[in-house]
Design a protein that fits this description.
single chain, 23% strand, seven-stranded mixed β-sheet, alpha/beta, six-stranded mixed β-sheet
Length: 306
């Protein structure tokens, strides 16, 4: 399954950089160009992706000043910040989480868990500017609103970038567009569903997801929301029966979502749902996180062998 990829001008001076498949560590990014400076939305997992983006945008970016907005802390959106010669901006929780993760140097763990992924050039970088609620940028005749979603969703520090005059929203990983499976292990099921409804309420013409194809209209938002609602409801039935989260995830018939990429994310999503059913704070760290990740890897291998 493929879709339009590369650098796509969505409106005058507003670009989406879309990658194929959108699976683990293959993310999208964005660019907003003004007369005197440019705004980049998210960086990438590795140097090759970052260099391709810079090559495709060479001659398009204006001025010598660049701002780089990170929509959340995950490495496929932050690990190549240092290659962009830009002032970086993110939610206060995003900077804190990167600081915590860098002390553990989890890039080495990811290299072990994903041996087929190229991590060349991946590096932790702390943002230069942080905010708690929202920040508004003025670039040429465009207003760019960077808004914290307000609650744990994909992570505990998600922001989206809204260009109201163009009817465009850069969602970060608040949206995984079909056929990319949503992933809420580090946030919350409840918050992710609410976030998708909120994004839909903006009535934007175009949504640039963190992973997957460019989206026109709201259908992809509702499809992602329906997936999460279905997984939550099916997980609840099994939670009430006392079924462990890993068995519950394997027991759920993915039905319409069976052909979506990275089906193993159902393990993480159900584990997060179980946390919420137990009344644990939304977005709080899971005590069995390492076990959940190991179960996801095992499930992925099971799917490949089936």
């Amino acid at each position: 399954m493929s879709w339009q990829s590369g650098l796509i001008e969505v409106d005058k001076g507003v670009y989406a950089y879309i990658q194929q498949r959108g699976t683990w560590f293959i993310s999208n990014a964005g660019l907003i160009v003004g007369r005197d400076f440019s705004i980049i939305i998210d960086s990438f997992t590795n140097e090759s992706m970052a260099m391709d983006f810079l090559s495709k945008t060479k001659g398009i970016m204006a001025g010598s000043t660049r701002l780089l907005i990170n929509t959340h802390y995950h490495g496929d959106h932050t690990w190549t910040n240092h290659l962009f010669n830009a002032l970086s901006i993110a939610h206060v929780n995003t900077r804190r989480l990167i600081e915590e993760e860098s002390k553990l140097n989890l890039i080495n763990l990811y290299k072990h868990l994903f041996p087929d992924v190229d991590f060349t050039g991946a590096k932790y970088s702390l943002q230069d500017v942080v905010f708690s609620d929202s920040i508004t940028l003025y670039i040429g005749d465009k207003v760019v609103e960077v808004r914290y979603i307000g609650y744990p969703a994909h992570t505990i520090g998600d922001v989206y970038v809204y260009v109201p005059d163009s009817g465009i929203v850069f969602t970060g990983d608040l949206l995984f567009a079909e056929p990319c499976t949503p992933f809420v292990l580090f946030g919350s099921v409840k918050g992710s569903i609410e976030a998708l409804d909120h994004l839909a309420s903006l009535n934007a013409d175009t949504y640039i997801p963190g992973h997957g194809p460019l989206v026109h209209g709201k259908d992809a938002l509702y499809r992602a929301r329906d997936y999460l609602t279905y997984i939550r409801d099916e997980a609840w039935k099994r939670f009430k029966e006392g079924m462990p989260y890993d068995r519950a995830a394997r027991d759920i018939d993915l039905e319409d979502y069976n052909n979506w990429f990275d089906k193993e994310r159902v393990i993480g999503n159900v584990a997060r749902a179980y946390s919420e059913f137990r009344g644990e704070p939304l977005g709080s760290p899971l005590s069995n996180l390492n076990e959940v990740v190991a179960e996801m890897i095992k499930y992925r291998a099971e799917v490949r062998l089936s």
